[in-house]
Specification:
There is one protein chain. This protein is 37% helix and 0% strand. The protein is mainly alpha-helical. The protein has one domain. The protein is globular and about 30 Å long.
């Protein structure tokens, strides 16, 4: 919910998606219902994707 334009229900959908998929770049969020290219561009400066080692 810290991202511009992301409310609690959309944040929940992102978390569920993240539990099942790896996010490698901001565009991966386009697979989440309710997120489109415009929303990605609005929050691109605050999206961080980091590599996680197992």
């Amino acid at each position: 919910m810290l991202l511009e334009g992301i409310g609690s229900s959309l944040a929940d959908r992102i978390l569920v998606y993240r539990e099942r998929h790896t996010l490698n770049c901001p565009e991966d969020l386009l697979q989440v219902h309710g997120i489109g290219p415009i929303k990605i561009e609005r929050c691109r400066r605050t999206i961080a994707v980091t590599e996680v080692s197992n």
